[in-house]
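Below is how a single chain appears once it has passed through the pipeline. First comes the sequence as given, then the structure the pipeline wrote out for it. We keep one example in the README because the format questions we get most often are answered faster by looking than by reading.
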Amino acid sequence: MSTAWKSTSTTTTNNTYTGTMLSSWSRQQKLAMIASFVILGILLGVSACSKQSSKPALVGVSGPQTPAAPDTTTTTATTTATASSTPVAAPKKVHKKRPTVVTYSDANSGVSFAYPRKYELASGDKAQAQLGDMGAPMNFVQPGGVAVATVSLPAASYPGTDFNSAFFNVSVNRSLSEQECSRFALSDQRKADGAPVDTEKVTIGSKDMEMTSDFSANAVTQAEAKYFHSYENGACYEFVLGLGTAGYGTANGVEPVDRAEVFKKLEKILASVKIQAVEQEHVAAKTVENGEAAK
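Resulting structure:
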């Protein structure tokens, strides 16, 4: 009886010890596993933090970023499409109006004047020939006159009237004195002794001049001329206003032109005359030219 109890006691003790050991080992394993998970979590956290902190460092040491170039193909295509879709207005033609009045100037004589563009201008030898055709020769008391320019009104200026022609002429004579310039070559046909025509002092524009007139007529035509002399720059300047008429009283439906109106237009040109000082080389060149022409 005594032996059996001991054996039972021993067995009971061994079983208790074994259970105790197993129970104790199981808790250690749990702790170890928990500790392992904790350590692994810490390592993963540290690893993730170090990766995140390394990215700004790489960005900080990199060079400046170059902005991406714009897509020129797309931009050009868009611009072309916009331009082609927008209608382009045709440029408007600007018609500049030509001035109705032009200015003529001559360097050799120093003369300049303004006249309507629609009038006809002739200068030099052409002016002299035209003046002769109109029956109004130069009216200097001594030879040496040179034609400068002639301005003529259009032939159709006064339709339905006896208007035939009208002109403004400029000539210069450098061989006359101031006293000779104040006289005219025309003689008064009404006087038996053929005395020079009477003259009068007039002011045209800003110039004081000597003036006389001449009138001639036949059964068909009439010619009237007004002569003006002005002495400047050591030369005598002659200005002629001429009017020619024909047909009144000989053709049906022809009325007399308003002579005062015609001369008013010519006097407007005369009032615009300016005479500038002439350089000596121009005078010398013109004198030589005239001498060679006379030969």
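Strands lie at 101-105, 111-116, 120-123, 145-152, 163-173, 200-204, 207-217, 221-232, 235-246, 274-275.

See the next section for the split statistics.
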